[in-house]
Specification:
- By secondary structure, the chain is of the alpha+beta class.
- The chain folds into 6 domains: about 20-75 and about 525-600, P-loop containing nucleotide triphosphate hydrolases (Rossmann fold, 3-Layer(aba) Sandwich), CATH 3.40.50; about 85-190 and about 480-520, Beta Complex (Endonuclease - Pi-scei, Chain A, domain 1), CATH 2.170.16.10; about 220-400, Endonuclease I-creI (Roll); about 410-480, no CATH class; about 605-665, Helicase, Ruva Protein, domain 3, CATH 1.10.8.60; about 670-760, Zinc Finger, Delta Prime, domain 3.
- The radius of gyration is 31 Å and the shape is flat.
Length: about 750
């Protein structure tokens, strides 16, 4: 049985008659195909009900073998490992698209709206700042471009765009496919300020009292309990020293400690500082041990500091490692360091010098077995005002050395500077081209130093600020600079690529060392101005009278983008038809709605899902009971994609599909289990309800899923309408609080308690 291919694609309807559950709409679309003409269309309705399937099937029937050339969905994105810096609910974190996608996408969604998430971007004044993200998108590609530039690399789809600077000093997008070696990309170095960060250490406190033969006595293994404390200089340095050469020591889950390793005897002062900090800040005593290695076993080469405190060890474990393997390969710079004030970030990097070579203030090379940590250091340095680079086995910081006349954060594009200076040359009291001669002609440089250009601007005759002077001054005083593209390779690829929508900015920083990327799929005006127009203005292929642009999630387009789309629809109506797919047609502006025929797709019925599921099961040789079909229908909630995905996941386990397999794979509780949970609570049996809740959550069922199922069942329960309203209100309140970041277990416990109180009030 072939299961490598995704069944939602394998069994996507090839003809309109195969689209399930939307009979009236399909008849209308078939009449358009028969006449070989159609108006602009809006497909409105929830996910997984056949909107995309109907559009693709109609294109197949209209165009035959040339359907793919005359039908397009436009996307461009970056690969999942692309590093980014985000801020969520006030907390800064260095992550990547893969990590963000894991918690954003469910099943095979293409777009997910996001809230309370910001990404590091740049504003209209060229200042680096966090800006809100509206959605994340993804799609699959067959090829990507691997771009290596000075100090880092990034991988994107061929249609993705990077940001470059034109001769006018404006930031514009340029397709990856049009880049070449020697081009200049935008980067930054900026000392971003943060407030004091509280370290939440108390939450790891040990159990103070234990049950000893029925008597609660103080745990003799517990010494001092550490309190929460603010990050400060000594702590930042100590944490940097741990990242460099520290390790954990655990015995089970009840006894843990830390080991710091330093060079001996050259780092004896660092050893003394670390011991003092452990004593003064944590009240921890430590011991020393000399390590011997090399040819001369009689001469110590390292010295270890050992201290034991399970509370501190657990704090380090949860903040300094990525995953469940706690060794040098999974080390990460903790998020609380990104959130710390600038002086403490710098002190952390000084502590990390224990794993580096060089001198602070000149040139540093940090080594690490963790690739992700090298990227962390690269980004941490950039938001701390340092010029950093990231390589395969090390991260570097450069201030200024004789061999480095100018660091990369000093450079602007020569073409931009010359263009702007040319316009004000009569106002400059020196031969500015002569001043720039070495920069312009030495090794055919494409860049000039900000410092030299500032010297030239200081010679302006008049103080009157003209537009060119304003723009040049803005660039010189901005944190932006440029780096050279060193190599571009096109590689085969078969996976998702991702993008974020950043309204108002349309760009974000990404890469192992940050460069400015264009969010090509940000559902904004640039999509309409560039990609849609480029496709719409070309003539149809073959015997087709028009082409089709299918724009999914059209309700996520900004109002400005929709206005631009309206004009594009008018201009290219002779050669192009638009199909706008959305969840809510009311979010499409009225001028577009009036130009389209609107079709509202409904949730699929039990019969529609059952019919398609049985067909797929027959094709794949699966045994499918009626109870299993009912289970698939229950978990899918009228979404065909969800139903097909559930069937494929179960088929991996067995060719005989049973209901319990469906519930287990989709992490969904049986309806009767949720009914039992609600019944116990309404009967006033609070602790019995808690036991049932514990049982459900032990199966991996999330809190929001439990709430969604409770919502479905309460609506259909045989209880008075007034009580239904009260229970629904309480479910909605719990759902809102969890969405806002509250602890889901506490909220679910409180919800059950409120159900019990509602019962006792009767």
């Amino acid at each position: 049985m072939e299961r490598e291919e995704i069944w939602t694609e394998k069994y996507r309807p090839k003809k309109l008659e195969d689209v399930a559950g939307q009979n009236a709409i399909i008849k209308n679309l078939q009449s358009y195909v028969k006449r070989r003409n159609l108006p602009h269309l809006i497909f409105s309705g929830p996910a997984g009900v056949g909107k995309t399937a109907a559009a693709v099937a109609m294109a197949r029937e209209l165009y035959g073998d040339t359907w793919a050339e005359n039908f397009t969905e436009l996307n461009a994105s970056v690969t999942p490992e692309t590093p980014i810096l985000i801020r969520e609910k006030g907390e800064i974190k260095r992550t990547n698209f893969g990590e963000l996608a894991k918690r954003s996408f469910k099943e095979d969604e293409r777009y997910v709206k996001l809230s309370e998430l910001e990404i590091l971007s740049v504003d209209k004044d060229y200042q680096v700042k966090f800006m809100p993200v509206s959605l994340i998108s993804r799609h699959k590609v067959e090829k990507i471009a691997e771009i290596k530039y000075e100090g880092g690399e990034v991988k994107t789809s061929l249609n993705h765009s990077v940001i470059v600077m034109d001769k006018e000093g404006d930031l514009i997008s340029k397709k990856t496919s049009e880049l070449k070696e020697g081009d200049l990309l935008i980067t930054f170095t900026s000392a971003i300020e943060n407030e004091d960060k509280l370290l939440e250490i108390r939450r790891y406190k040990p159990q103070l009292y234990i049950d000893l033969k029925g008597v609660m006595v103080r745990n003799p293994k517990v010494g001092n309990i550490l309190k929460d404390m603010n990050i400060e200089e000594d702590l930042a340095w100590l944490f940097g020293a741990y990242l460099a050469e520290g390790c954990l020591s655990f015995r089970g889950n009840t006894s843990g400690g830390l080991v710091f390793t330093f060079g001996y005897p050259q780092e004896i002062k660092a050893v003394e500082r670390a011991q003092r900090i452990l004593d003064e800040k944590f009240g921890l005593k430590s011991s020393l041990k000399i390590g011997y290695s090399g040819f001369n076993r009689n001469k110590g080469s390292s010295i270890q500091i050992r201290t034991f405190n399970t509370q501190l060890a657990k704090f380090i474990r949860d903040n300094f490692y990525d995953g469940y393997k706690y060794d040098a390969t999974t080390k990460r710079t903790p998020s609380f360091i990104y959130n710390s004030p600038l002086p403490y970030r710098l002190e952390f990097l000084k502590g990390y010098m224990n794993d580096g070579m060089g001198e602070w203030g000149e040139y540093l090379r940090y080594s690490s077995r963790s690739k992700e940590n090298l990227i962390d250091i690269s980004w941490l340095g950039r938001i701390s005002g340092l010029n950093t680079s990231c390589f395969e086995e090390e991260a570097r910081v450069v201030w200024k050395l004789p061999s480095y006349s100018y660091i990369k954060s000093e450079f602007l594009p020569a073409g931009t500077v010359i263009c702007l200076l040319d316009r004000i040359s009569k106002k400059i009291n020196l031969r500015w081209r002569y001043t720039l001669r070495h920069q312009l002609y030495h090794k055919k440089s494409k860049r000039v130093s900000k410092r030299i250009v500032k010297e030239i601007l200081s010679e302006i005759k008049e103080e009157k600020a003209e537009e060119e002077i304003k723009k040049l001054s803005k660039l010189l005083n901005s944190p932006l600079s440029v780096v050279l593209v060193k190599k571009i390779e096109t590689k085969e690829y078969d996976d998702f690529v991702y993008d974020l929508a950043v309204p108002g900015a349309e760009m974000f920083w990404g890469g192992t060392a940050p460069i400015l990327l264009h969010n090509s799929d940000e559902r904004g005006i640039e999509v309409v101005r560039n990609q849609i127009k480029n496709f719409a203005r070309t003539m149809p292929i073959g015997n087709a009278a028009f082409k089709i642009i299918f724009l999914d999630e059209a309700d996520a387009l900004t109002d400005a983008a929709q206005s631009a789309l309206r004009r594009t629809m008018e201009r290219y109506s002779g050669t192009c038809r638009f199909i706008l797919s959305c969840n809510y047609s009311s979010k499409i502006i009225e001028p577009i709605q009036s130009r389209c025929s609107v079709y509202r797709f409904k949730l699929l019925s039990y019969d529609a899902i059952a019919s398609r599921i049985k067909y797929i099961a027959d094709m794949e040789g699966l045994k499918l009971t009626e109870e299993a079909i009912e289970a698939i229908n229950y978990v899918s909630m009228g979404d065909m994609r969800r139903a097909v995905n559930a069937l494929q996941s179960a088929a991996v386990l067995s060719s005989e599909i049973k209901p319990e397999m469906i519930y287990e794979i989709t992490a969904t509780a049986r309806p009767e289990e949720i009914k039992e949970l609600i019944k116990r609570a309404l009967d006033g049996k609070f602790f019995d309800a808690l036991d049932k809740l514990e049982e459900l959550m032990d199966k991996g069922i999330s809190g929001d899923e439990i709430l969604a199922q409770m919502h479905r069942l309460v609506i259909n329960m045989d209880i008075p309408a007034r009580k239904k309203v009260e229970l629904m209100n309480r479910i909605g309140e719990a759902d809102y609080r969890i969405t806002e970041g509250a602890n889901e277990r506490i909220q679910l416990d409180a919800l059950l308690a409120s159900f019990c109180l509602a019962s006792s009030d009767e």
